[in-house]
């Protein structure tokens, strides 16, 4: 029988025990944001970062290899006062170089893309705000919705399950996701770090927006360079793997990828100078240690 919960590892903090009020950033999340801000200042010494760790606009966070010409700013929606650990900014930094040629992009083992769109809404058909997928990749018969997390998994998950998700879903291929939501309603502590409810909403939205197509939900997550020194990151990976196994036979399986795994695969499969320069720029910004 498949195990149904993750046991926190020795040395886990209150973050794993779920003792903080929902939505509050842990000390670890704050240190991570400070480390990312320091990397940004090193790259761009004159940039202004306010006391809450925010820059003037999302576009201010783009690494040199992902900068947008003025006539292409509509590719990525901009917004004011964006935190340095913003997930859409990280997504854009990784994937903007393929905005005009998605056919050359690989996400783990997945390829064959013809369309690429940032911040895409995929309605679930259930009352409420549709989930926003950080990156939507489409092909002739394949759809990949990519959800990125930077420090969100260091903050107590706070997505609530709307009553509409309690009703049985007519699509048999969404049965595993519905069963998970029913169980999470009864046992919310099943996942202490991973916001599984939010991912379920993304999966349902993708399936209902693109019926009849092969659909994958990719979960891309950041880890610091010293992740092994902090048990919370191993615990997060364990929860991600539990979710992957719970929905592996569904119509929308989960493909987990750390940033490091994504970059290493790029370098192994497409070791050209432009891509090496891009990964180097990403490493300088995001491959940072958060210390003790």
Task: Give structural notes.
The protein is 33% helix and 15% strand. By secondary structure, it is of the alpha/beta class. Strands 3-4-5-6-7 form a 5-stranded mixed sheet. The longest helix is centred in the N-terminal third of the chain and has 17 residues, at 27-43. The chain is globular.
Rg is 19 Å
- Terminal CA distance reads 38 Å
How many distinct helices? 8
| Mean pLDDT level | 88
What secondary-structure arrangement, pairings included, does this model have?
Elements: H1 14-17, H2 27-43, E1 54-57, E2 80-83, H3 87-95, E3 115-121, E4 132-138, E5 142-149, H4 175-186, H5 196-209, E6 214-221, H6 231-246, E7 254-258, H7 259-269, H8 273-286
Helix pairs in contact: 4-5
Summary keywords:
single chain, 292 residues, globular, two-stranded antiparallel sheet, 8 helices
Summarize the structure.
The chain has 292 residues and is α/β, with parallel strands linked by helices. The chain has helices spanning 14-17, 27-43, 87-95, 175-186, 196-209, 231-246, 259-269, 273-286, and strands at residues 54-57, 80-83, 115-121, 132-138, 142-149, 214-221, 254-258.
């Amino acid at each position: 029988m498949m195990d149904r919960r993750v046991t926190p590892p020795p040395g886990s903090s209150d973050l794993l025990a779920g003792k903080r009020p929902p939505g509050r950033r842990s000390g670890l999340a704050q240190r991570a944001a400070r480390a990312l801000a320091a990397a940004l200042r090193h790259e761009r010494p004159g940039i202004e970062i306010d006391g809450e760790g925010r820059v003037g606009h999302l576009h201010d966070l783009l690494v040199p290899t992902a900068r947008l010409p003025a006539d292409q700013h509509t590719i990525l929606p901009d917004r004011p006062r964006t935190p340095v650990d913003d997930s859409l900014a990280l997504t854009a930094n990784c994937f903007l170089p393929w905005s005009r040629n998605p056919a050359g992009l690989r996400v783990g083992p997945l390829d064959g893309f013809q369309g690429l769109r940032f911040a895409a809404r995929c309605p679930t058909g259930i009352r409420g705000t549709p989930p926003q997928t950080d990156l939507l990749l489409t092909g002739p018969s394949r759809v990949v919705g990519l959800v990125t997390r930077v420090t969100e998994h260091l903050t107590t998950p706070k997505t609530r399950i709307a009553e509409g998700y309690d009703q049985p879903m007519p699509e048999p291929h969404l049965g595993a996701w519905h069963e998970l939501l029913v169980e999470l309603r009864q046992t919310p502590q099943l996942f202490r770090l991973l916001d599984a409810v939010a991912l379920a909403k993304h999966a349902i939205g993708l399936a209902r927006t693109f019926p009849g197509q092969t659909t994958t939900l990719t979960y891309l997550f950041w880890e610091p360079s010293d992740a092994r020194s902090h048990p919370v990151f191993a615990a997060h990976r364990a929860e991600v793997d539990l979710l992957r196994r719970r929905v592996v036979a569904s119509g929308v399986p989960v493909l987990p990828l750390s940033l490091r795994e994504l970059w290493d695969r790029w370098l192994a499969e497409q070791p050209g100078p432009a891509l090496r320069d891009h990964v180097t720029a990403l490493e300088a910004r995001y491959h940072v240690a958060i210390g003790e």
